[in-house]
Queue: 2 jobs
Job 1
Amino acid sequence: MDKKLKIIAICGSPRRGNTYNILEILKQSDSEIDLKILMLSELNLMDCFGCYSCINTGEENCPLKDDRDMIIEEMKAADGTIFASPTYARTVSALMKKFVERTSYISHRPIFFGKHAMALTTCAGFGGDLTCKYLNENFTQSGFNFVTSLELMVSTKSETETDYNHKKAINEYSKLITVIKAQEEFKPSLGQLVYFNIFKSISELNKVKGWADYEFYKDKKDFYFDINIPFMKNKIAKWIAGREIKKMKANK
Ligand SMILES: Cc1cc2nc3c(=O)[nH]c(=O)nc-3n(C[C@H](O)[C@H](O)[C@H](O)COP(=O)(O)O)c2cc1C
């Protein structure tokens, strides 16, 4: 028997409300998939106080000992991740923002290449697109491939609206599952190559204080791991990165 696909949903709502309900619908929609919902509100996740230990000296040196690493291990073990947050004040909830901050060292040293994700938000009507964009941009930099974004309006709570939302949610979720099942070979995008080159160059400028990045990048050549990159694509990426680094240096 094939192993069940494992999906982890990180839910940034402070309550088991609209966003959680949609995740429950997804969970019930396919018994062949093991969908686990992690409510950030029910976990121990402390506020980042900006000491830079994780970025500069390694995530293991973060002074906050809480559930951060457990959540990351769940994401690593899963075949796909759903980043779910209600839209509060036109962006992610404070809880989700905290999670983004506590994991932002991963955007320096990405670990989720080859993993697929989707963004999910519920809102009354305004800013859901900004929430999804925020989740997408942050976690793409950690290596995730975002298959889709799901923005659901829950303003009237009518039967028609609920029915529409459930159908739409299941439809977008199935896109994520289809991409995971297809197991396509990973090919770095131009953007990913550019980011690699920028972070590698910056790590060389900050060897002493930022040795975690320096150690991570120093033996890497064209990407985070050995992979065939078309010659011209690689050249263009290095050119774009070089231009961006020049701009950064000009600011000093
Ligand atoms: C503090 C707060 C701020 C909100 N801000 C927005 C907003 O900017 N745009 C919007 O469309 N809905 C907004 N809403 C409505 C929620 O996005 C909507 O009710 C959502 O489904 C709540 O999800 P939850 O039950 O998982 O918390 C806000 C709700 C709260 C409590």
Job 2
Amino acid sequence: MSDTSMSKDAPNSGESEVGGDGRMNRLRFRKKDMPGGLWLKCESCSGTIYRKEVVEKAYTCPACGFHFTMPGADRVRHTLDEGTWEELFPEIEAMDRLGFVDSGPYGDKIERTVQRTGQKEALIAGRGEVLGRPVILGVLDFKFLGGSMGEVVGEKIALCCDVARQEGKPLILFTASGGARMHEGMLSLMQMAKTCSALSKLNEDGGFSICVLTHPTTGGVTASFAMVCDLTLAEPGALIGFAGPRVIASTIKQELPEGFQRAEFLVEKGQVDVIVARDEMRSMLARLLDFGACRPAAKAAPGPAPAAGEAAASPAASPAAESAAESGAAPPS
Ligand SMILES: [Zn+2]
């Protein structure tokens, strides 16, 4: 569940080849010589690239176009029209109900992560517009405990579904996740059913949802809400799967096909509808939103759903979301 894409800075991590192969050409960089995070190594082309350039290109490699994991706040900025963002449920924060301890207490881990990221949880939710089309947006941020889904993430997704139903707006979700949050034990696994039920209810009421799978989307997130939206998009080269390829290969003791669990492989198998490059994401979303708005189901949509706002202060306390979870409805499609 570690951030593998943006944290490995090639020149910082020991020795680096700078032209030629002789000992004389081998330079040793230390952290004090190179300011941390100035350079990073592309996972795809192995090129050493200037971080600023990557950020300017919406976290894609200037050399090969590889799509790095994008921080949640940048994703929101990159997806929505300027000045339209209005955050929803920012006050809901993670709780350590089980008193879980692994390398340290889970409560401490949350506290450190909140301080480091400036966010209270892994999911950022809100209202906004994509090229003038109003949407409800939910973005999983990988840098918050690997974008893992605990109680709060599940609750916020369910609440987003409620707001989308209530306001008759389409729901767009971006995923980047290591899966369920193990520190929350079974409570985190229950979010799989809860989020699927909430999306099912949105679907039944004529709502429209799009999920964009970004690198990496794995575990309980892939196995739940990420795969049950009306449309499933993916970014190029994104790793999408349940268990990791190494675990699968060692379990079945077989060599995996080339490109296994990558977005391109999954389009071929029909698990992903379309791959969309980051620089085309907004225009594609706008087109798909127009498509969603003119579906027969959308036109026949019933009135607003019950309010969910007043229950936002505490996780797992939304009556609408809970009743959705209890109904045990099957995920759409
Ligand atoms: Zn590259």
